[in-house]
């Protein structure tokens, strides 16, 4: 058995936490810098994308600290999109099933269309992630664009009739913005 001088334990109990803090801090700052630089580039090239939305949504994810590069950040944005579209699909399902709240027949029709669009969007974002992991960036672009189209087609349906308010405006916009981030990153890597 090798025995350490008592000073070793004293020193390591002091230094280990310090190294740990520095290491964690370094990781957090480097992913924050990566996110800000990437969001700046994305919002500069796509006027539809808000810089603040981009940084807020990526930084708020607990997975973001593990993002070391653009590829990781691309996956993170698609992960967030997948959660978003799944949640929206469930929300629409809930609206359509809710018997207590009588829906306007036109709104109901739009919601049914959106339900189908979002159901397909879940499959598309999964495809996009798989293609992205395989570095098949053209295919990833096509699949992610389908998700963007789902959000705009859904929202446009409500606009076709006057005095109809879409209950999905914020959700559609969130999905639109998230896929704009993904598409920008896909195009940077392609
Ligand atoms: C911005 O959004 C509008 C409306 O959805 C769309 O027509 C246009 O192509 C978008 N621009 C870019 C650069 O994506
Ligand atoms: C969708 O994503 C945005 C950005 O990350 C987030 O602010 C919003 O809460 C999400 N919406 C849902 C319904 O998950
Ligand atoms: C994507 O999400 C899953 C489950 O939420 C998580 O396990 C995985 O680490 C995430 N990947 C990235 C790149 O954020
Ligand atoms: C969509 O969201 C972005 C970012 O939050 C915001 O700047 C923009 O005004 C929203 N657009 C619509 C049509 O709500």
UniProtKB/TrEMBL annotation:
Record Pfam families: PMEI
InterPro entries: Invertase/methylesterase_inhib (IPR035513), Pectinesterase_inhib_dom (IPR006501), Pla_a_1-like (IPR034088)
Gene3D superfamilies per UniProt: Invertase/pectin methylesterase inhibitor family protein (1.20.140.40)
Domain (Pectinesterase inhibitor) ranges: 30-185
CDD domains, per the entry: PMEI-Pla_a_1_like (cd15795)
Sequence intervals crossing the membrane: 7-26
UniProt keyword list: Disulfide bond, Membrane, Signal, Transmembrane, Transmembrane helix
Similarity comment: family membership: Belongs to the PMEI family.
Name used for this protein in its record: Pectinesterase inhibitor domain-containing protein
Taxonomic source organism: Ficus carica
């Amino acid at each position: 058995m090798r025995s350490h001088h008592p000073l070793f334990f004293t020193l390591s109990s002091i230094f280990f936490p310090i190294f740990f803090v520095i290491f964690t801090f370094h990781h957090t700052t480097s992913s924050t810098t990566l996110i800000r630089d990437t969001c700046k580039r994305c919002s500069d090239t796509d006027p539809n994308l808000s810089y603040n939305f981009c940084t807020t949504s990526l930084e708020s994810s607990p997975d973001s600290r593990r993002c070391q590069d653009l590829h990781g950040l691309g996956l993170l944005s698609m992960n967030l999109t997948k959660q978003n579209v799944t949640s929206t699909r469930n929300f629409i399902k809930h609206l359509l099933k809710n018997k207590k709240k009588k829906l306007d027949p036109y709104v109901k029709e739009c919601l049914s269309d959106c339900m189908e669009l979002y159901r397909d969007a879940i499959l598309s974002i999964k495809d996009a992630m798989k293609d992205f992991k395989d570095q098949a960036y053209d295919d990833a672009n096509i699949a992610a664009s389908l998700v963007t189209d789902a959000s705009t087609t859904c929202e446009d349906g409500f606009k076709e009739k006057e005095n109809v308010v879409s209950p999905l405006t914020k959700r559609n916009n969130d999905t639109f913005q998230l896929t704009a981030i993904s598409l920008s990153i896909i195009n940077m890597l392609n």
